[in-house]
Structures are given as C-alpha cells and as structure tokens.
Amino acid sequence: MYTLDQVRCFVAVAEHLHFGRAAAELNMTQPPLSRQIQKLERAVGAELLARDNRRVRLTPAGQQFLGESRKLLALAERAPEGARQAAAGTRGTVTIGFTAASGLSLLGPLLSRIRDAEPEISIELVEMVTSQQLQALEEERIDLGLGRTRTAPEGIARRLLLSERLVLALPSTHPLADPEHRPVRADIAGQKLILHSATTAQYFYDVVVKHFDIDHQLVQHSLSQIMTMIHLVAAGHGIAFVPESARSIAVPGVVFRPVEDLQEEVVELQALWRRDASHPALHRVLAVIAP
After folding, report:
1. Number of structural domains found in the chain
2. pLDDT in tens, 52-85
3. Same domain, yes or no, for 183 and 249?
4. Among 85, 101, 119, 255, which residue's CB has the most CB atoms within a 10 Å radius?
C-alpha cells in the first residue's frame, strides 16, 4: 500500500518533470525522492514516470494517476476540517422520520430553516407513522421524529412544534358545506363517517372520539392516511375529521369547515428524539427547530 507522502512526491515530480526541482520543493535530496517514487510504482503496479539522463516524462499510467493523486491530496487536506466540523455538529447527516400529515404543515418550513441556519448539515427523510418513528428511534435508525403522541417511552424526549384545530372535510354538495351554515359538534349525528384507524392512526382516533360523540355503526371506512380520507370524502363516502393544515390539499369536490364549538387547537405535532443522543449535528438541528 502506498502512502500520502509517496503521492506528494509523485505529484511534485510530475508537475516539475525534474527530480532536482521537485526535491528542492519538498526540502529533501534526490536519492530518497527517487526511492519514494520507486516504492509508489511497486505499490501501484505500473510505471508512472519514464526517465533517462536527459528528461522525465509521465507515462500514460502516470497521467491517469496524476489526476487521481491531486484529488486524493485535496481530500486529505479537507478531511481534518470535515472531522472537526462533524465533531462540532456543523457538518453531518441527520435522519428525520416524519408522518405524511406533518408534510402538509410543518415539514417544508422546518427544512428551510435548517438549510438556512446549518447549510453543511444534510437531512435524510424517511416517511413513517409515529409508532414506527418511536421504534426507529429506539433502534437508532433515525435521529429525529416528527410525530403525534400523547405519551412516549421513558428514553424519548419530545417538544411541541405545532398545534392546530380539527376541521371537517365535507363533500362540496353536503348541507354542512353551505357557507351560511356554521357546523357544530352535534351536526355530525347521523352522518356517514370516514374515521381514523384506532390502531394505525391511534393519535387522531383518540382526539376525535374525545371531542365528538361517534356512532361507530356509521363509520364507513377506518384509515390511516389523511390524503386517502379526503379523496373518499370527494367520492361521497362520508365526512372526515382532519387537521386544519389539510386545507392545503386541493381536491375537487371537497370543502373544509371549522367546528364552531371546537375552537381549541387539539391536534399537536411534536419533535421526538432520544434523551441520550450524542449526535452533535442533531443537537444543532434541535436548536433551530425546537429552541
């Protein structure tokens, strides 16, 4: 295996095409310089320099190796600084798990804030429901979660990022969609419902049943994805309860109406991370999004 010192010697000779001038640049004499080049050629397995008593020139192998050698030396120069930046958290990769619903509201602005404040930190995104995020945090497959949960395991820290209202998604022809009508909670009595799944979307399910009197015999479908729910509303299969940020989904035939007697911001989105996380870049990201 060759060394960086041997590569530096080769680059100096290749640039000067003269052993004497290269040796002077490197503050060494010609014999050890020649030995370094010979060792390098043996390690590479090819003659890099053709030399005789009058001149030195690069062989085809040497021309190819020169370009790669310059890249190698530049990388070696940058590596210590990159390591220092990674240790300080100013460079690195943070993997974020996020729910599809968080993409409707907070994800885009959060990524912009991180990019502007920490441009050398790379973000990898993985879409997963909150229960999957908690498992991935436990297994250290992600660094940060953007999820919704009432409780979290003891080793998981959390911080509120966003709270918003729950609104009704209605077919545009539905009586409750009339702009003159102001829906209240009692209006859902007798309505066909598209509800969140009690298993795969437990957070939303719990919020809905806490604030509305749900007749489960009227539930047409139980789902986990808000986008799918809204499309079923458009098809006339029922009405749905969605976070206010879902208004950004422009689906023809669907309107969104607030519930007059439920003005509280009952839907929350939280940042989730391991309490024992030591990743410096993660802590810099947290300082940006959840100071």
Report:
1. 3
2. 777 888 998 888 998 898 888 888 787 666 666 5
3. yes
4. 101
